[in-house]
Write a structure and sequence with these properties.
Blueprint (H helix, E strand, L loop, with lengths): L14 E3 L2 E7 L2 E7 L2 E3 L13 E2 L2 E6 L1
Antiparallel strand pairs: 1-4, 2-3, 3-6, 4-5
Length: about 60
């Protein structure tokens, strides 16, 4: 993770993530939905001390 103008004092950090999704066929196309929660194994750039960062990316797609 990088923040402009700051140096990460912890060095390299890790992340845990897992995802779940569903695909819905709609004739010749298919829609898919996916969520992949992520847990950063550091408190760097979270704005909180001793609190890991979390993100919840959501993906909605259409395949032809």
């Amino acid at each position: 993770m990088r923040v402009a103008g700051q140096r990460n004092p912890y060095g390299v950090g890790g992340v845990l993530h897992a995802g779940v999704g569903v695909r819905v066929p709609l004739g010749r196309v298919a829609m898919h939905f996916e969520v992949t929660p992520q847990l950063l194994l550091t408190d760097y750039a979270t704005g909180e001390d001793f609190s890991p960062g979390t993100y919840w990316p959501v993906l909605v797609g259409l395949s032809f």
